Amino acid sequence: MSDGRKKYAVVGTGGRSGFFYSAIAKDYSATSCIVALCDTNQTRMNYANAKLASLGHGEVPTFLAADFDKMIQETKPDEVIVTTMDRTH
Fold first, then answer.
1. What's the superkingdom here (predicted)?
2. Among 1, 7, 11, 58, which is most buried by a count of CB atoms within 10 Å?
3. Residue 49's CATH number
4. Does residue 87 surpass a pLDDT of 80?
5. Residue range of the domain that includes 40
């Protein structure tokens, strides 16, 4: 996306991630967007993508944790929000 909005990738799509991606998709959509999701669990990423779509954001590419570098390279986020379990970051 090159529309001037700040681009975020979300790493870890469990419960706490929803607070972040929901706010970006709703309250801050004029200035921010989600460009990627990354997790060890595809099911959680699919759920997060469905929530993004229901909020009017649209789905975004998903990347397994092993493909973190690929996600950064392909989606070029401005910021990465890490919401994984505390022991993993």
1. Eukaryota
2. 11
3. 3.40.50.720
4. no
5. 6-88
Alpha carbon distances (Å) from 56 to 29, 40, 63, 67, 74: 10, 25, 21, 27, 23
Strand order from edge to edge, sheet including 6-11 = 62-64, 32-39, 6-11, 79-82
Number of domains in the chain: 1
Position 1 in a domain: no
Residue 60 and residue 25 in contact, taking contact as beta carbons nearer than 8 Å: no
For 71, residues 6+ apart whose C-beta sits below 8 A from its C-beta are: 9, 36, 38, 61, 63
The C-alpha atoms of residue 47 and residue 53 are separated, in whole angstroms, by: 10
**Structural domain contains residue 63:** yes
